[in-house]
Amino acid sequence: MTEIEEMAENILIAEFKKGSSGEILKVTIGEFRNNYYLDFRCWYFPEGSEKPMPTKKGISLHIEQIPELQKAIQAAAVYIRRMYSSKVADSVEPVESPEERPGSEGQR
Questions:
Q1: What pLDDT, on a 0 to 100 scale, did the predictor assign at position 82?
Q2: Helix, strand, or coil (residue 12)
Q3: Helix (H) or strand (E) holding 4
Q4: CATH code given to domain 3-64
Q5: What is the DSSP string of 13-66?
Q6: Where are the domains of the chain?
Q7: Mapped to the 3 state alphabet, what secondary structure does 53-107 carry?
Q8: Sorting pLDDT into bands at 50, 70 and 90, what band is 95?
Q9: What is the CA angle 81-84-88, rounded to 5?
Q10: The pTM is what?
Q11: Residue 81: its pLDDT value, please?
């Protein structure tokens, strides 16, 4: 199986509960029309089913946009730590860019 064939199915990166509604947020990487995307999608459990189904709620970003997303998440984490430190305390960890990680010189 080639790398492109492997990407034809979504690769699950992360999954977590979204509030108390029973919905979950899945972060996946997938392919659509020969373009690769990072997808953030809400999933729900239909009544009487244990298998989650995707909703229309979500966003797909072209993988080339990931560095911009990383910067936005870093900025949000800094803002949250500054503005809400008494409420979130240590729950929002600083996000390091690959360039900031030890031993990552010259890697991309």
A1: 84
A2: strand
A3: helix 3-7
A4: 2.30.31.10
A5: EEEEE-TTSS-EEEEEEEEETTEEEEEEEEEE--TT-SS-EEEEEEEEEEGGGH
A6: 3-64, 67-100
A7: EEEEEEEEEEHHHHHHHHHHHHHHHHHHHHHCHHHHHHHCCCCCCHHHCCCCCCC
A8: low
A9: 75
A10: 0.66
A11: 84
What are the C-alpha distances in Å from 68 to residues 54, 73, 74, 78, 97?
Answer: 25, 9, 10, 16, 11
Checking if the pLDDT of 108 tops 80, the result is: no
**What percentage of the chain has pLDDT greater than the value 70?**
71
Residue type, 71: K
Is residue 31 within 8 Å of 11, Cβ to Cβ? Answer: no
pLDDT tens, position by position, 4-48: 444 457 899 999 998 787 899 999 999 988 999 999 999 999 988
C-alpha 60/C-alpha 36 separation (Å) is 10
31 contact partners, CB below 8 Å, separation of at least 6: 4, 7, 8, 37
Angle (CA) 10 32 54, round 5°: 50
